[in-house]
Amino acid sequence: MTRRVRIGLAAVALLYLIAWLAPLLAPYDPAAQLDLVSGRLLPPSLAHPLGTDPLSRDILSRLLFGARFSLSIAAVAVLVAITVGTAVGLVAGLAGGLVDAFLMRSVDAALAIPRVFLLIVVLALWDTGGLTALVLVLGLTGWFPTSRLVRAEVLSLRQRDFVLAARGLGLPRWRVAVRHVLPNAVAPIVVTATLGVGHTILIEAALSFLGIGVRPPLPSWGNMIADSQAFLATAPWLATVPGVAVVATVMTFSILGEALRDTIDPRRR
Amino acid sequence: MKPILSVRDLTAVFALRGGLETRAVDGVSLDLFPGETLALVGESGSGKTTLALSLLRLIPDPPGRIDSASRIEFDGTDVLRLDAGALRRIRGGGMAMIFQEAGSSLNPVMTVGAQIAETVRVHTGLGRRAARGRARDLLADVGLSDPERLDQYPHQLSGGMQQRVMIAMALAGAPRVLIADEPTTALDVTIQLQVLDLLADLQQRLGLALLLITHDLGVAARIASRVAVMYAGRIVESAPAARVFGGPQHPYTEALLQAVPRLDRPAGRLPAIPGQPPRASEWPAGCRFHPRCRHAWARCREQEPALLSADADHAARCWLLAEPERRAQ
Amino acid sequence: MTAQRWIEVERLTKRFSLPRALLGPRRAVVALDGVSLAIARGETLGVVGESGSGKTTLGRCAVRLLEPDDGRVRFDGVEVLTLDATALRRMRRRMQMVFQDPALSLNPRLRVGAALREPIAVHGIARGPRARRRVVELLGEVGLDPAAYDRYPHQLSGGQRQRVGIARALSVEPEFLVLDEPVSNLDVSVGAQVLNLLADLQTRRGLTYLLIAHDLAVVRHLANRVAVMYLGRVVELAPAETLYGQPLHPYTAALLAAAPVPDPGAARPRIRLAGEPPSAVSPPPGCPFHPRCPHPKKSERCTMERPVLREVEPARWAACHFAEQTA
């Protein structure tokens, strides 16, 4: 584990820690409209370190809770994606033949549809689904590359002597698949999963910006940016603060993902 | 006669994680004379491949580097002090190298003829057509005289033929020294024989000096005039081939000749060498072979022997040469 | 069924299809072309050949790690190829394989102890602490320190990994082992140790071996009888010392002449084979060896008529029209 990986992991852990402790760290209730008369659009001050928004809600509190939503949605969505993707890739790679062909052609077809459009359409139609719908749809539209990766690893592992030996020892097929093939196929997934979290945060922010992700009054960095559009000239911090948060978070995951890729790839190959 | 290649105190150091350093090649000296075949024999971890790569400065730096006290003299020129341009001219032009897996060393998207012609042009400055003609001649020299070969791709050739192509490319610059790193290890036995015959034949015709690196004692026995045995980064024995195989002076060489399954000895239990070759990060103190040597005594554990002379041209790195009465029975 | 034919393969055939161009002709490599052999209980049958000879395919088909296209495999009277999944799983305990490359034949994610316990548990041989004890015994039997139990394969040397591979094969208490190039990826000094170990194990456990190797000298150290393969067929079969002393087939003679011997002064017959092994996709008509054959009696008959493996002398088989005159 290199230094870069350690730093990246620490940064990601810190982000999640902050998000988890949001209720403790936030000075105010993120939904509380504190003072609609004179507390709106206040610039950063001691009382409100990041200022207040058009509805006099404390931005710092909303940022922290926004982090909570964004990070947890992304984590669960990616978890769903890699679980489904790994299962499909494993089955396709091991079964071969028609099963493999059917699964992979389905993946090809699904990949032909632009993901963001698909997300917009489904979420717009399923507007009562709330966060559950968001997480599920994000996860179920994001598993296709994972399945391809896993399948490729599985195909090459199938021919390896130790897998042949496991079959030769009379181990049942499921056991060979789960104990011998699967653990050796998951290395590349660690990288895609990490990068995937960053990517998902970005998509969620975009969806929230469009109003179909995390919907008001729940705070999300994306809908915070949406709300700030009318005030770019007068209260620029409304947009920059959540914007910087998104960028910094996505970059952190990217850096960790790249560092992991560098440690995993040359050693195993 | 002066050696065409003279190596003195060659040491190649590799940096490991955690700041450690290991010396894959540790103070090796050898001479290669024109027209002779020197076989460098060793098992894995002995440093023989690193040695070969060092001769043409092919060790990636980092993590490896050649110690500044080393000297590699080719035809009077110190290879280690050359600038990039002069080094390029020597590579292929003065000393050429062929590798174990010919298939991986050939460019899969260029025809065989094109690859050889390219090397020819780099080293001789001939024009395109003349270079192609020379490529055809070189292929004929290595036994691939069918003119169709020029336009074939490496994957269309068998392993043995690919190796011949590599040899042809190596000869394109008219080198005086050919370094062959396990050239036949990946080949079938009958093809191996063809390639070894070819190397011996070329050496005679072109007056080359051949440095053959191998782990296979039988291969060395077939074409070597002299043999140097490497163990744990050092040369432990060096002598004319007949002496090394007929009367080895170092216990490692002796044990190796006993442990190898041989067609010329009756089948029976093999006297195996206990233990395994040490890793570069774990060289034993004193004589590096002592933990596995049946003769070892206190001096071997404490003090590493220098190369001692058994004879005018036979040396071995073993205290038994100084104290022959210590030989166990 | 006698002890002489304890393991039998009969007319074993295996083809591997090659990728074909769209609508192009179907092409296949014939890896095994009707091979028939028998192994006696307790014996070591050596199979030698160069690449493309089919020896590895033979080994894998013999333990049904590959499904042959044609032919039969009989083990102690049982037809191995027609067994159903459950019966096959039970049969697997009796026959095991040791693989060539120790670096690739162990699961890199499993510690040695776990890898050896698994087959013991799956076959119900032992559980819990008893299983652990058995594993430690196995480790000792193959010459490994009990500390190896907790190691990962990458922490072991090549020789140690190969020993683990052998221990794994022994964990289910087999009677028959297929050894596929057991020492070719090991250093000479380590290989000798492993060969000695295999010899000891055979004596101690009464094992039967099918030893596959390209190195004639290696085979000689363990084999009672040796079969020489060329292009998917057996071209000679004889007791080991007889084969090495007086080969009947010109290919065997060429192999012996080409094998490297660490003695520069050794008198070797000068036999040089021309050309390369022919393509296994479209073998030449007649004897597959004829294009390269240096036999002085080679004639037109060789290009037209495929020689059959026949008993030229008692217990000495050769597939050559002129086997009697090879010497």
Describe the structure.
The complex is a heterotrimer of chains A (269), B (329) and C (327). Chain A has one domain: Orthogonal Bundle (MetI-like fold), CATH 1.10.3720. Chain A contains twelve helices and no strands. Chain A has helices at 3-20, 22-25, 59-95, 97-111, 115-125, 130-140, 144-158, 161-168, 173-185, 187-210, 221-227, 237-268. Chain A is elongated. The two termini of chain A are 17 Å apart. The model of chain B has no long low-confidence stretch (mean pLDDT 90). With 329 residues, chain B is an alpha/beta fold. The mean pLDDT of chain C is 90. Chains in contact: A-C, B-C.
Write the layout of secondary structure elements.
The complex is a heterotrimer of chains A (269), B (329) and C (327).
Chain A: H1 3-20, H2 22-25, H3 59-95, H4 97-111, H5 115-125, H6 130-140, H7 144-158, H8 161-168, H9 173-185, H10 187-210, H11 221-227, H12 237-268
Helix pairs in contact in A: 1-3, 1-12, 3-4, 3-6, 3-7, 3-10, 4-7, 7-9, 8-9, 10-11, 10-12, 11-12
Chain B: E1 5-15, E2 21-32, E3 37-41, H1 48-55, E4 64-66, E5 71-74, E6 77-78, H2 84-93, E7 95-98, H3 102-105, H4 112-124, H5 128-141, H6 159-171, E8 177-181, H7 189-206, E9 209-214, H8 217-223, E10 226-231, E11 234-240, H9 241-246, H10 251-259, H11 298-302, E12 308-311, E13 314-316
Parallel strand pairs in B: 3-9, 3-10, 7-8, 8-9
Antiparallel strand pairs in B: 1-2, 1-4, 1-5, 5-6, 10-11, 11-13, 12-13
Chain C: E1 7-17, E2 28-39, E3 44-48, H1 55-62, E4 70-75, E5 78-79, H2 85-92, E6 95-98, H3 112-122, H4 128-141, H5 158-170, E7 176-180, H6 188-205, E8 208-213, H7 216-220, E9 225-230, E10 233-239, H8 240-245, H9 250-258, H10 300-304, E11 310-313, E12 316-318
Parallel strand pairs in C: 3-8, 3-9, 6-7, 7-8
Antiparallel strand pairs in C: 1-2, 1-4, 4-5, 9-10, 10-12, 11-12
